[in-house]
Amino acid sequence: MSGLNMAQTASAKAALQRTGSGILTKEQFPNMIRDKIELQIDEMMEAWTGRVDASQLKGLFLKKSQKGLIHRVQTTVRPNDIVPLRRDADDDIQLISAGEGFGYTFRTHLFALGVAWERELTEVDDVGAIAQKFEWLTEAAERTYKHAMADILNRGIKPTSAPILSLDGMYLVDSGRPNPDPRAPSWSNEESDADITEDAWFAAKLNAYNTIGPNGELLRLKINKALIPQAYEMVAWKLTNSDKEVGNANNTANWAAAAGPKYEILDDLTTNCIYYILDNPQSEKNGLQMRERNAPSLADIRFQNPDKEGKRIRFAIGFGCLDPRYVWRGGLLNAL
Amino acid sequence: MANVLIVASPQIVSNETNITENVYKDDGTKDLVRGGLCVLSAGTIIPAETTPGSAQKIENDAAPFDAAARYFISLEDKTADGGFVSVSEITRDTILEGFVVDATGSSLTMTQAQIGTVCEGYIDAAGKWAINNATTKGVFEIVDVDSNYSPYRHPDAAGMDEDSGGTRHGRVKFRFIASKLR
């Protein structure tokens, strides 16, 4: 490298990547092991940008452990009765009646992924090029969790199909939801398709307030915060940062800025929709659950050939939703 | 409309066989492509193509797939010099995962119903190969489809598994049918 070239033109490089072998071989890292490399940097630049992180999504699911492949839940309905008038001398006393609610089954599924390499690769790997292979597996597990949870929320409102259904047989957010008490009308946690506006947010607040329980009891729920896709941040920011109503010249106070819900960008929400979080998702009131039968664990793969080495990660998880009404409301957003 | 843009060649995903070098040599004339499908011919490893460097289907009546043979994946780009080449053999136990192309239509994903069917393959001009979504002259048995074994695949919006034209391809696990392996 002698000359100083001030007129360089771009030319896309092609990396080597896959060989077709399932085992990592020296052919996959030829430059690493044949040349003297002063510094190996992971392409993901993990040290600077952080790793695959599903913590935001995990915060929206109530995490539970379960021992069996399936976990069956049967609900009962608390009666919503009013005490009637009665004379003491009246021998007939009105009796309260109750019954079962809906049943639900959580299922867990087993996942595993391995990485294997030939011994020579580690022997000649002076710069730790492939020393991160355990991290690759734990990262893949975290990524799987993330995709699974994101999929549930991205197909949670008026989807054509969803990865899970709720206790009542409906989607996470849906209308015309049945209640187990035959006297209770159906209910909805679905808002009309709308833009992010003051009126839409107040309608959601009012609808949450008027939500009934499984027995028809009015629950008077409150919206704690709204979750929106990144694309809608600017609209939401303007709505919540203007003390006057957005989009008109009237000198009218903006309810959404002063009294509306706070919003948070849910990074993995890619569907045009908004979720309103009512109660604490980490409380027992959250029907949306992640069930873990086995947390991700690493173990050695033992080959007959002593010069092949490997690790595998294995976990068993499942997802499901009991009654979503105490935590989840939502609606589709009109396209920007 | 046909789509034979191959994202990447298949990869062995289970029942890995021995990786051999110092055993097999190229034939001194036909270059080998990393990840490319190869065949043992007269004791040397050559590309499993009638005309290397030109796109073609893998069909059960076209050489070398018209008879039983020993197939390999080349682990390296190799300019033919008659020297040793690193290969991994494909045996009856070997399961590979590859992308789906369609040389006549536009069906780039496979469904549950296609598990167990025997499909053709396709090799492009660069030596990359894939499963062709057609059963007429099949060579590869479909073992599993991605919607089955990978329910939490990357979301479509992420752009993963898209070809150079921006179209997403499905992935399948497959193996050679026994009659094509010696």
Number of helices of chain B: 1
How many domains comprise the coordinates of chain B?
A: 1
Read across the widest sheet of chain A, the strand sequence of neighbours is 5-11-8-6-7
Q: Label the structural class of chain A.
A: alpha/beta
Count the DSSP helices of chain A. Answer: 8
Give me the side-by-side strand order of the main sheet of chain B: 2-8-7-4-5-3
User: What is the share of helical residues of chain A?
Assistant: 10-25%
Termini gap of chain A: 51 Å
The averaged pLDDT of chain B comes out at 94
| Structure class of chain B | mainly beta
Structure commentary:
The complex is a heterodimer of chains A (336) and B (182). In chain A, the strands form three sheets. Chain A has a five-stranded mixed sheet, with helices on one face. Chain A has a four-stranded mixed sheet with strand order 1-9-10-4. Chain A has a two-stranded antiparallel sheet with strand order 2-3. In chain A, a hairpin with a 5-residue loop joins β9 (288-302) and β10 (308-321). Chain A is an alpha/beta fold and 336 residues long. The radius of gyration of chain A is 27 Å and the shape is flat. Chain A contains eight helices and eleven strands. Chain B is mainly beta and 182 residues long. Chain B has one domain (11-180). Chain B has one helix spanning 146-149, and strands at 11-14, 19-20, 25-26, 37-41, 44-47, 56-58, 71-74, 87-90, 95-101, 118-123, 129-132, 140-145, 171-176. In chain B, strands 2-8-7-4-5-3 form a six-stranded mixed sheet, with no helix packed on it. Chain B has a five-stranded mixed barrel with strand order 9-11-10-12-13. The mean pLDDT of chain B is 94. Chains A and B meet through α5 of A and β1 of B.
